[in-house]
Write a structure and sequence with these properties.
By secondary structure, the protein is mainly α. The chain is globular. The protein starts with a helix and ends with a helix.
């Protein structure tokens, strides 16, 4: 009896001194993801500013669809460029490779009547060969990636001129052009929204929430700090709200374009590879500290080679998407695309020293540039001033990264 009384009256044990509070968890989470969260906030502010400035034109369904289609190929390049930069390298040839693949696709489909499906496969293989060629010189011969890809930039641009003989080729087959300009067909009963797109949006919401929950469970299993359950639900609700707002905007027009599906598949695939596979961890290790990675058993030459093969395939895919949207193969295709991709990667959180960055960050960086381009065009800002503004945004993003690293180091 006395034992029961003592148990009842005994005060609750005080929290352990090392247990983190809600505030400390929030601060820790913000610090560890400061660059990514900062770019998300910047993207939201840019959208709000141009939505007001353009008299609510920016977020109209037609313009949102145009944003997706106009920037799809840059986002594809940004994913590959992010991985290249994480590995501690750079690729200056992707813009010229985009043009070269578009020219090759035009020659195959228009001049030689190759079925467009077969031509797409052959072009992707050609991109892999181009990436392997550059990866060989970088990984196994030891020539710096800057030099190799600069040579590739000149060679692929020259190859484009040779294939097209300085002329444009058009038109592409309708099925090929729909890869970039087409939309998912409508199915099901009539509603105010595009049914398949709404279903895809709901699936994306469910997958995103499940991924967040799975990540939380994994951190808890390893006894790492996790945010309180209430804040976790707030984060999930914000993700669902953003995805559904975007989905409903697209669904109120023609639905999701095929280009968005291609980008979504790439995002899911490469996010998984970089976070959950051995090769992804090796890429981070190689870019973070190459000597230590080699001592740990990372096959640095093979990893570097595969990174550039992957970049070649993604550049080929971007070239196909761009050619399909343009409806022709032109010698001037892909000009400055490498700079846009590099800027998107650095704005999205890549580090010039390598070893840092995410696929999501590449998408965010690409969207920042895309919304800036579209918004400034809507309000009538000239292309000369647009270049100045984008340059300042890139400088500010990298400067913020340098400042953040110095602050953490101190």
């Amino acid at each position: 009896m006395s034992t029961a009384t003592s148990k009842t009256e005994s005060p609750a044990p005080p929290p352990a001194e090392g247990s983190p509070s809600v505030g400390s968890l929030l601060v820790q989470g913000l610090r560890s993801n400061m660059r990514q969260y900062g770019m998300l906030v910047a993207l939201a502010l840019i959208i709000v500013i141009f939505q007001i400035w353009s008299d609510n034109i920016l977020l109209r369904p037609l313009n949102v669809t145009n944003l997706v289609q106009q920037n799809g190929y840059i986002l594809i390049l940004a994913i590959g460029m992010m991985i290249v930069i994480i590995a501690g390298h750079i690729d200056l040839s992707v813009g010229s490779l985009v043009a070269f693949i578009g020219a090759a696709a035009g020659v195959m489909m228009i001049k030689h009547d190759v079925p467009w499906g077969l031509a797409v496969v052959l072009c992707l293989l050609l991109g892999a060969v181009a990436g392997a060629w550059q990866g060989f010189w970088i990984a196994y011969i030891g020539i710096p990636s800057f030099i190799v890809t600069l040579a590739g930039m000149l060679a692929f641009r020259g190859g484009t001129q040779i294939l097209l003989d300085g002329q444009s080729l058009s038109p592409f087959p309708d099925g090929f052009e729909k890869m970039s300009t087409g939309f998912i067909p409508e199915m099901g009963p009539y509603t105010q929204y595009h049914n398949p797109t709404m279903v895809i949006g709901l699936v994306v919401c469910a997958a995103a929430v499940w991924q967040e929950w799975r990540g939380r469970q994994q951190r808890a299993a390893y006894e790492l700090d996790v945010v309180p359950l209430g804040l976790f639900f707030v984060k999930c609700a914000a993700i669902v709200a953003a995805v559904m707002a975007f989905t409903m905007t697209l669904s109120s027009w023609h639905g999701a374009p095929y280009g968005l599906l291609i980008l979504a598949v790439l995002f899911v695939l490469f996010s998984f590879v970089m976070r959950n596979t051995v090769i992804g961890r090796h890429v981070y290790a190689l870019g973070g500290n190459q000597p230590a990675a080699k001592l740990s058993g990372v096959r640095d030459k093979r990893v570097t080679f595969m990174v550039f093969v992957n970049m070649g395939v993604l550049a080929a895919l971007a070239g196909l998407v761009f050619a399909a949207r343009l409806g022709s193969a032109t010698p001037s295709a892909g000009l400055n695309f490498e700079l846009e991709a590099i800027a998107a990667a650095f704005i999205g959180g890549a580090s010039a020293s390598g070893g840092v960055g995410t696929v999501l960050g590449a998408i965010i960086g690409g969207l920042v540039l895309g919304v800036l381009n579209n918004g400034m065009s809507l309000v009538g800002i000239g292309t000369d001033y647009q270049q100045v503004i984008k340059g300042l945004v890139l400088l500010a993003a990298v400067g913020f990264d340098v400042w953040n690293k110095r602050k953490v180091g101190s």
